[in-house]
Design a protein that fits this description.
Helix content: under 10%
CATH class: Mainly Beta
Structural class: mainly beta
Strand content: 35-45%
Largest sheet: 6 strands, antiparallel
Strand order of the largest sheet: 1-2-3-10-5-8
Distance between the termini: 54 Å
Number of domains: 1
CATH architecture: Sandwich
Radius of gyration: 17 Å
Length: 161
C-alpha cells in the first residue's frame, strides 16, 4: 500500500503575472508515486487526485475545455462560482460536479475564504485545451511541456503537399 498525509505534501503555487488567476495545489497522486509521463498504467495511475485552494478574489485559470479529459470535483469548503456554457453557478461544501471532454468551464472563488476542492481527473495522454474567450489552444509538443498557440483556420492539406 502507498500512503501519504496531506500535511506532508508540498503545496505548489501558480499565479498569473497580473494576479487575476491563482491557485495552490497538493498533487496527491504524484505524492503517491504517479508518473504522468509514463505509458505504463501501473506507474501512470488511471486517474489523478489533487487538492486545490483558490484564494479570495482569484480565478483558477481561463475559461477552457479539454479535448479528452474528464474532471470530477468535490467541494470541501468555501464558496465557488463555476462558469459553463449556461452561465455561472454557486457551489459550496459538499457539492460535487463533473465536466467531460469538450465542456468548457472555469472555477473562481466567490467568497471571503479560500475555495477548496478535490478534483479527480483521468488525464489522458494527448489531451489539449481550447480557450473560447481568447481563441487559444494549449497543446503538447514532443519533448516538452504544453505550448500555447493562437492561429487562423487553414485547409487540412495546407503545407502538406
Amino acid at each position: 500500500m502507498r500512503k501519504v498525509n496531506l500535511k506532508n505534501i508540498e503545496e505548489r503555487v501558480r499565479q498569473s503575472p497580473k494576479e487575476k488567476f491563482g491557485r495552490r495545489m497538493k498533487e496527491i497522486s504524484v505524492a503517491l508515486g504517479r508518473d504522468p509521463e509514463s505509458l505504463d498504467l501501473t506507474k501512470r495511475h488511471p486517474f489523478d487526485l489533487t487538492l486545490v485552494r483558490i484564494p479570495k478574489g482569484k480565478t483558477l485559470c481561463p475559461y477552457h475545455s479539454h479535448s479528452a479529459e474528464s474532471e470530477l470535483y468535490l467541494v470541501v469548503s468555501g464558496k465557488g462560482s463555476i462558469r459553463d456554457k449556461d452561465g455561472s453557478t454557486i457551489v459550496t461544501a459538499g457539492d460535487a460536479f463533473f465536466f467531460g471532454p469538450g465542456e468548457a468551464h472555469q472555477l473562481a472563488n466567490a467568497g471571503e475564504e479560500d475555495f477548496v476542492y478535490y478534483v479527480i481527473a483521468d488525464n489522458p495522454r494527448g489531451d489539449s485545451c481550447y480557450y473560447p474567450d481568447s481563441g487559444k489552444f494549449a497543446v503538447m509538443k514532443e519533448g516538452s511541456a504544453e505550448v500555447i498557440v493562437k492561429g487562423t483556420e487553414v485547409d487540412y492539406f495546407e503545407g502538406e503537399e
